[in-house]
Design goal:
With 155 residues, the chain is an alpha/beta fold. The protein has a single domain, classed as Glutaredoxin (3-Layer(aba) Sandwich). Helices cover 30% and strands 31% of the residues. It contains five helices and nine strands; from the N terminus they run βββααβαβαββββα. It has helices spanning 44-55, 57-62, 75-85, 98-102, 141-153; strands spanning 14-17, 21-24, 32-37, 65-71, 90-93, 106-111, 114-119, 122-126, 132-137. The strands form three sheets. It has a five-stranded mixed beta sheet. A two-stranded antiparallel sheet has the order 1-2. Helix 1 runs parallel beside helix 5. It is globular and about 40 Å long.
């Protein structure tokens, strides 16, 4: 599967989801979709990012926009994280890194001198027709929510 490109249709894909379901991109055509990739459940930056989307969910809903979070954590771990944080959106498990590769978010990272392949915090805005309209890479959590809301408001 090739990687997504701006202003091009996003290939259909599916991932296991919280809520005992399977996310399929094609099931959500007709709505705008924000998919945010994050490194790991229950870590400070990832928790804050999810809380920001949670706390502004009404603004996204008013613009006919769905939110989905993606990491490599299992659905079971996602369920606990979602419940603990009262996230009103589903979290998708990409243990096989299929969507991570599609969106090209797995990169070499360094932490305390250790190198490893990990998810670089990234967000993608897909319009109602399934076309990628905006992407943010190496996201800084503190200012990111406003950027995404502005982009949704300008669709």
């Amino acid at each position: 599967m090739q990687q997504v490109e701006l202003d091009q249709p996003v290939p259909d894909f599916e991932l296991p989801s919280t809520g005992d379901s399977t996310f399929r991109l094609s099931d959500h055509l007709g709505k705008n979709i924000v998919i945010y990739f994050y490194p790991k459940d229950n870590t400070p930056g990832c928790t804050l990012e999810g809380q920001n989307f949670r706390d502004h969910i009404k603004e996204f809903e008013a613009k006919d926009t769905l939110i989905f979070g993606v990491s490599r954590d299992s659905v079971r771990v996602h369920e606990g994280f979602k419940t603990k944080q009262s996230f009103p959106f589903e979290l998708l498990s990409d243990a096989d890194e299929m969507a991570c590769k599609l969106f090209d978010v797995i990169k070499l990272k360094k932490n305390y001198g250790r190198e490893y392949m990990g998810i670089v915090r990234s967000t993608f805005l897909i319009d109602k027709k399934g076309v990628l309209r905006q992407e943010w890479r190496n996201v800084k959590v503190k200012v990111h929510l406003e950027e995404v809301l502005d982009a949704v408001n300008n669709l």
